[in-house]
Amino acid sequence: MNDDVNISVLKQVRVVLCGCRNEGVCVIPSASQSDIDVINQADLPRFTCDCPPRFTGTLCEVSTDGCLSNPCVNGNCVEANAEFSCQCHTGFIGATCSTPSDPCASRPCYPGVHCQVNVDSRTHYTCGECPTGYEGNGVNCEGEERAVNITPLFQRPFFSFILLTSC
User: Fold this and answer.
1) Range of the domain at 45
2) pLDDT at 34
3) pTM of the model
4) N or C: the chain end with fewer CB closer than 10 Å?
């Protein structure tokens, strides 16, 4: 008997547009027949995203790498556990290295010499003139040592008096 039977199998394929970002993996719950029949994207079955390290959020859109946004204005960013810290370049301070430091704060000039911050760079300074009797560039000043006449203790009259009375 030759019965020509045409059997056809119809397979329906479910396509879900997954919105996971930053290489997140779309996780779709088990499909039911009603999920297969959806037409509009708004009616798609709900999905979740399995986010890679350093990303979080519903769609893995939030970076947990504190340095990703380049927060250090004048420095290098160091990331650790979703936190960051900045190693500031010379002449800058603050959490994001955005504040010019005061180069005169370290007192680079010779004692008593005025330190002036250069307005153009804010990272350089100029020292004033050395004190009277000294010569130099304001950072290093040299001059004559002033001799101080100190009479040795045993030659002082008071000490001699004590010696005479203690005999």
Assistant:
1) 25-63
2) 52
3) 0.40
4) N
